[in-house]
Design goal:
Elements: E1 52-55, H1 70-85, E2 90-95, H2 100-110, E3 118-123, H3 127-135, E4 140-146, H4 149-155, H5 160-176, E5 180-186, H6 193-211, E6 216-221, H7 238-248, E7 256-260, H8 267-276, E8 281-284, H9 298-309, H10 319-330, H11 352-360, H12 370-373, H13 387-398, H14 412-426, H15 435-445, H16 453-467, H17 469-475, H18 489-494, E9 499-506, E10 511-516, H19 538-546, E11 550-551, E12 555-556, E13 563-572, E14 578-587, H20 588-591
Length: 604
Amino acid sequence: MALLHPRRNPATRNLQAADQPELFRDIYPYSRISRVPFDGMYVEPRPASPMFITDTSLRDGQQAHPPYTVRQIARIYDLLYELGGRSGLVRSCEFFLYTDKDRRAVEECRSRGYAFPYPTGWIRAHREDLRLARDMEFSEVGILTSASDYHIYLKLGWDRKKAFDSYVALIAQALEWGISPRCHFEDITRADIYGFCVPLAVKLMDLSQQSGLPVRIRLCDTLGYGVPYPGAALPRSVPRLVRAFTDEAGVPGEWLEWHGHNDFHKVLVNATTAWLYGCSGVNATLLGFGERTGNTPLEALIIEYISLTGEDSAANTRVISEVVQFYEKELGLRVPGNYPFAGKDFNATSAGIHVDGLSKNEEIYNIFDTKTILGRSVPIIINDKTGRAGVAYWLNQYLELGEEDQVSKSHPAVGQIYARVLAAYETGRRTAISNKEMFDLAKRYLPELVPSELERLRAMAKRLSMTVVGKLAADHLILGEGNEHYPWMQPFLQDYPFIQFLQILDREGRLLASAIVDPTYADRYANLPLGFDFSQRDWFKAPMRTGKLFISDFYRSAFTYKLILTVAAPVTDDQDEITGIIAADILLEELLRQPEEPGDESGS
């Protein structure tokens, strides 16, 4: 193997000044794909003890999509506790501190009284930010301490000495105020390890010794350049990075933390490698959601931890399925069907011989007992290789049939459905049979076991409402009476034609503003002046009473005479007090035109 980058002789433990930034152009040519340097230097694994997970779902995770509400943040915190906080495997959780909402979320989570994950903060390397952390009584706070010359010279406009002195002064102040700092060595895989990072870490350890407080260091692989390969050289080698800090800078492994990104598809293996070479903490986000390509998936780390240690009781892995439901239903985020451990079809099979094996003993083709470990059965994909056993299996699993209703492969309806599947492929079909197509076949041949069309439509309306109306209520405020206060309403309706009528009400149920999709019916709504009283409607009273989104049954509109249902969601202020209601009338005939959810168009 050609050596792409010769070994650099380790420098002293003193700061190495540089007139020009070290950009490692032989490794990072920019106009070409980055190179992996090898120098033939190997280090033996030395697994960290203890190994634990730190979470940044509420910081990095929020940077991937719209901000969470306080209630949503608290729910995520509860899920982290249930998933791995009880045992201390998920040790800490990182919060923003800048807005009133951020601060209320911290207090809400603190009020839970959980030992783990304990709340920590994140700030920029500014004294004003540090004062904010002190005022919020944080015992630990992460501080952005950019490490590479890309950041120091090109972003901050500093040189190494100014960066070094600025960081040291701020860390000293944190320790003086009784705050244990966590220094985020940003862009570590493009940094001069011996010329800047190790000398800074040595100084931080000196400050720690003087103060008696730990100074933790987070190794941030900001662009995912880290590699786990034996013999790889710095600054890209994860094993060598960990050892440079533990062995040469004297940082205890329990004070060291790895933070990876998935730009080069190495986020999980790099995180595990950090554990195996002496870094106790690995930073992660639920489902890997984070800026750009995302972070180390926390649920994957939990499975990896159990694989390495055999400690099955360290986590409640069934909560992973609850996390997926919350992210999809509450936050409107979509988890790919084949996403490991979490996607609805991640362990699905389509081969008939596999399905027959699953029916006899699912251990033959399933990675582990997913029903026990994740609380979910094995799905399958229907095609011409599935066989009657596969059709029966699909019906039992997809329709969630109880033991008394389960069908066998010899059931006449199973034979009829399978005959239709084979006929499709005999006439040239090449794609898998979608879940929707299978559902339609089940309705035809097993109507007694299939939910009614109205039940299905109401479920669809609920899913749409959670992602559309629920988010609408979370993102807007009650601002007063008159449509001029809500200029977003009419443009919003253009994107959602299944909403017939949108209205905003105050706490007393009085109409503040409204908008309609079809101007044909404008005259019929003319009898709804501002101030019209809706306070006796069930769809107003229910969310005011519970604080939750409400969905009515189907009924005929008094204005258009068409079949609709009403969805209503509470609007809250900064103190989570309900200030009004956003309600939408959803038109059945438009709902019927809506495509199935992503993932239902095919069997994959």
